[in-house]
Amino acid sequence: MSPSDLLALRIRQIEKRPEDMRQAALRLHASRIRSKEEFERRYHAKFYREIYLPDELVLVRNSRIANDLGHKTKPKWLGPYAIVRRTQGGSYVLRELSGAFSIQGIAATRLLPYISRNDPRLAELAEGFPSDAGVDRVDPSIQGEQDIPEDEEDELEAMDEEDL
């Protein structure tokens, strides 16, 4: 190719550049949307967010201890705290039960609903489990004593009488 042909080809490429840039931008945008949808579909269970109402009690995951040595002995959850409000970004402003407010917002993924012992929801959750109300508890302070069936007790008493 002659230099004038090469120059003419380059001019056509430069003239076509804005159109190529628009097509590349559209392809990039479509690719990002597909990637986002795939990510959300794959990890949708991890992004489940419960919306908490003001004055609802929650626990906060203690993420500071995750990489500490001796984290097994430290509390995994802190609280309870009361919800003050939800921010535009989705985090929550909390207050302690004493009335002190949190300085920064807490991510919704770090929150867990607090259920008190006398909450009716707890009774609903326990309905499916067998009740142990009729079960006798063994006092751990009593050592050496064991529950012996009555028929075995009779045999043991008979053996003791024979020895006398």
Notable traits:
single chain; 164 residues; SH3 type barrels
Notes on the protein architecture:
37% of the residues lie in helices and 14% in strands. The protein has 164 residues and is of the alpha+beta class. Among the domains are: 8-45; 57-126, Roll (SH3 type barrels).
Topology:
Layout: H1 3-42, E1 57-61, E2 77-86, E3 92-96, E4 111-113, H2 120-126, H3 150-163
Antiparallel strand pairs: 1-2, 1-4, 2-3
Q: Estimate the helix proportion, in percent.
A: 25-40%
What would CATH call the architecture of the domain at 57-126?
Roll
Main β-sheet description: 4 strands, antiparallel
Radius of gyration, CA atoms, in whole angstroms = 34 Å
Q: Would you state the CATH class of the domain at 57-126?
A: Mainly Beta
**Succession of helices and strands:** HEEEEHH
Overall mean confidence score, pLDDT: 80
Low-confidence stretches: none
Q: How large is the count of helical segments?
A: 3
Instruction: Label the structural class.
Output: alpha+beta
At the third CATH level, what is the topology name of the domain at 57-126? SH3 type barrels
Note the beta-strand portion.
5-15%
Biased composition (Acidic residues): 147-164
Region (Disordered): 129-164
Short description:
The protein is of the alpha+beta class. It has helices at 3-42, 120-126, 150-163, and strands at residues 57-61, 77-86, 92-96, 111-113. The chain is built from 3 helices and 4 strands.
